[in-house]
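Q: May I have one protein plus its fold?
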Amino acid sequence: MKRILTGVFATCFMSTALFADEMKMAVTTSFHNSGLSEVLLPAIKEDLGLDVQLLVVGTGQALRLGEAGDVDAILVHSKTAEEAFLAAGNGTHRREIMYNDFVLIGPKDDPAGVRAAENTAGALQKIADAGAVFVSRGDDSGTHKKELSLWQAAGLDADEFDGWYRAVGAGMGAALNTASGMSAYIMADRASWLNFGNKGDLELLFSGDAVLFNQYAYLPVNPEKHVHVKADMAMQLEDWLVSDRAKALINGYRIDGETLFVFNAR
């Protein structure tokens, strides 16, 4: 049986005893919202007899769960934060699994003119110049960290934005729902956008810039720091995630004929 714990509710179950064939993995809301977990977890259970409990949180919270030893592994998408996690001795190593990309979403009439932008920095500058409503996750997730870095690369400081910049402190699905309700601009990972059912008058306006690359990586928690973590199961899961079976499932996962993730484990 699969168990999925979200946000703050995850911490309520930290002390729950697990069966021998269960492990905990913290994953990003963008990964879960994509729907890929619904494909992978049953296959993992079938192949390994391993029941993976997902704690669905932002990347920042996933890393903190790993640091505290509350999970056995994490699957996240913020390389700089992941490397800091490893440097502090919280994980054993980092294994790249798959990637997709970030996209800029906005109202179909595109009042800021994002469609005409030559690059991501130009698109963000157009939104800022127009004072068009922009929804930020604002939750220290990998998506939020990436978004802030892109504003900075465009020479803009999100801390100085006026009322048009709305940080909602929520996961990808909830942030997309907010953007849909406000007819606002938002940055999302492509997979979550394609699997999002409440698009309203929003559509994908800008993509394809190399800076929007979005890599997901798997990091087992360090058993030398937390002796109770299930390191053997974490390694079992890693071996499966880089297998041909996982490659076929990841590359074969599509919505409306469009691929959501590309396997690139080595």
About this structure: The domain at 4-99+214-263 is CATH 3.40.190.10 (D-Maltodextrin-Binding Protein; domain 2). The radius of gyration is 19 Å. Residues 1-20 have pLDDT under 50 and may be disordered. The first strand starts at residue 4 and ends at 6.
